[in-house]
Write a structure and sequence with these properties.
By secondary structure, the chain is an alpha/beta fold. The protein has 2 domains: 115 residues, D-Maltodextrin-Binding Protein, domain 2 (3-Layer(aba) Sandwich), CATH 3.40.190.10; 100 residues, Periplasmic binding protein-like II (D-Maltodextrin-Binding Protein, domain 2, 3-Layer(aba) Sandwich). It is built from 10 helices and 11 strands. The longest helix is centred in the N-terminal third of the chain and has 32 residues. The chain is elongated.
């Protein structure tokens, strides 16, 4: 009897150890396979380039997936200020990022100037428009521009028209868009005779032509900063992605889409 009891006890202990080992293995497997979703708020002009960059990153980091929110930088910053759950912010201007920094809403050490862009005047393919001064011609009835109150591209556009001393003359012709993609659509569809967008947006369209490039001296520098948002539940993963955005692999994608790389 003692021998049988000892055998049963040993068997039970062995089974217990096997169960614990299996639970440990399953737990480790779950941890390794658990997905981390990074929520990114980014300027609308980054839509195509960022999607491609994220796809490359996901290929090498199977546990990472992205949820993107594209729009005007000013509106996105307001959403973050109001408590929107965001891990990363990519702005098309310094001011929206500065506003968040002033309110203590970014991880300051993660802020980087990532990209640069240029502002261009566009028109439909069959347009005879040749330069900025041609916007005063009576054949140009509507000019699409992002809202300068909240969209960096609109602010750069207004600065450019002011520098050309055209703002007052053209004010009655201007139709405002919510972001650069909407302005591009206005011109593509012929609902506007001209528009001011980033060079990267013009490059992505086969329905418009670039009439002229705004001289950089006529507007604020077009710089795209990136930063991790304070309070992110995925800060470490967000930091790693910010570093990837500065890698040669990511930079090559941005350059392909028409951006230039900002100086460190």
């Amino acid at each position: 009897m003692k021998s049988t009891s000892g055998f049963r006890l040993s068997a039970m202990m062995l089974c217990g150890r096997v169960v614990v080992a299996m639970l440990t293995i399953l737990s480790c497997a779950y941890c390794c396979s658990a997905q981390t979703r990074l929520t990114v708020s980014a300027a609308a002009s980054l839509k195509d380039a960022l999607a491609e960059t994220e796809a490359v990153y996901e290929h090498g980091h199977s546990n990472i997936e992205f949820s993107n929110n594209f729009g005007s930088s000013g509106t996105l910053a307001q959403q973050i200020d109001q408590g929107a759950p965001v891990d990363l912010f990519l702005s098309a201007a310094a001011k929206p990022m500065n506003d968040l920094a002033a309110n203590g809403l970014i991880v300051t050490s993660t802020r980087r100037n990532l990209l640069r862009n240029t502002l261009v005047l566009i028109a439909p393919l069959d347009s005879k428009l040749r330069d900025f001064l041609g916007l005063t011609d009576k054949s140009i009835r509507l000019i699409a521009l992002d809202d300068p109150a909240s969209v960096p591209a609109g602010q750069y556009g207004k600065q450019t028209l002011l520098s050309f001393h055209l703002w007052e003359q053209l004010n009655a012709k201007i139709v405002l868009g919510k972001d650069v993609r909407q302005v591009l659509t206005y011109v593509e569809t012929g609902n506007a005779d001209a528009g001011l967008v980033y060079a990267t947006d013009a490059q992505a369209s086969g329905k418009v032509r670039v009439v002229a490039t705004a001289p950089e001296s006529m507007h604020d520098p077009i710089v795209y900063p990136v930063a991790v948002i304070k309070g992110s539940h995925n800060e470490e993963a967000s930091r790693k992605f910010v570093e990837f955005l500065r890698s040669p692999t990511a930079q090559a994608i941005f350059v392909k889409h028409g951006f230039t790389i900002a100086a460190p």
